[in-house]
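I am still getting used to backbone structure tokens and would like to learn alongside you. Label the sequence line and the structure token line clearly, so we can match residues to local backbone shapes. Would you write everything just below, so we can both look at the same thing?
***
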Amino acid sequence: MPTPISRRTLLAAGTGAAAGLSLPGVAAHADDQAATGVRFTLNAQVLDGGEQVTSLTLDTARLGPIDPAGLTTGTFTVHAKATSPIPLAADDVIFSEYDLDRTVTAVRLDHRGDIVLDLAHAEGRIGGSTLGYIAGRGRNVVLDLAYTLTQNAPIALRNHRLITIKDFVQGHRVSDPEVDAFSAHVSGSGMKYRLYSPTGSHSSRRGKRPLIVWLHGGGEGASLPDNYYDNETTLRANRGALGFATPQAQRIFDGAYVVAPQSTSAWMQDGPRFAPLIHEIIGDVASRNRIDRDRIYVVGCSNGGYMSMKMTTVYPTLFAASVPICGVVTSFPSGGAPLIPDSELAKIGTPSWLVASRDDTTVDPQANTAHAHDLIPGSQMTLYDHVVRNGYQFAGHWSWIYVARNDPSLNGTHIWQWMAAQRRH
């Protein structure tokens, strides 16, 4: 489903870039040493509104013990350029391309002795996103990122020697520990997906684990006409899947696998065809891991909200619970047949908790979420007035932010705890 032009930005699979160094106005010191080249890594975090590059790590530990007292926010200048990875039509537009200086807010040494440059970032800030949204395709894509570093003052070692770095070389990937915790796979039918497996104490416990199926929104599908199918945006565009892999969620679910299939287009374009492809992935994950088949949960937003309901109509006994977020059941766009007829909604037997915001201008919450709630037997519903997180107001369509943070609650029970308590009947 096409999403609004204010669509969230996200993701980064950076391209390698080398930057020359100049030190305008910096006088050479007699003890200056020239370090031939230093690699640096882009570090990213998925905020509620999408992934941003939040810091850079310079591979400087090998230069010797660095004196942190000599590092300031002015020691380095950081320039960032982000461009589309695929060609755009002449009349198309991509949101979140940029070519600008990033503000360095702090400079520190990590536990290895490498220099870390913290960068200004915030919800809605231009210039840090790892994804761009192509309006004509209705898709988020991983931006090609090229960062250029300039050293403005020598680096002092603890032995008082000064270091001048000759070249900076950008690494070929973006480091995001939450995203990197999901392994990449392709089903037998060719559908890509990412999988989080329980770690630590959860992985060592005996017994079978729950499986949470995250179904993404319309902007995170592939764009096959462009041969673009990244298996990345499903995790980087929002915290939908990542939320269930957090320590908090893992404690609540007693260690859960989380699987995030990626559509080859948009779920709503052909839900009946995609349903068995998703089912195949669930079967593959369940057969290869210790999955409790009585605790399989499906959650989805927007296009995925539709698909989570569609899955419970096609496979009425598969899931222990369903959480459709700002999903679609009416015709989209208007004027056609409903995507999920009332007769099918009325037959859903899977425990369902629907979530949306009243100010959603992309998917009418009354005609879709409230209407589905009225028809799905025994379903629960949370309708917010607005989508606000840490004082920042997002578009009303982005109600998945609340589910990713375990915010919805009824009678004192939050949505993750409710899900975890459900068992397939």
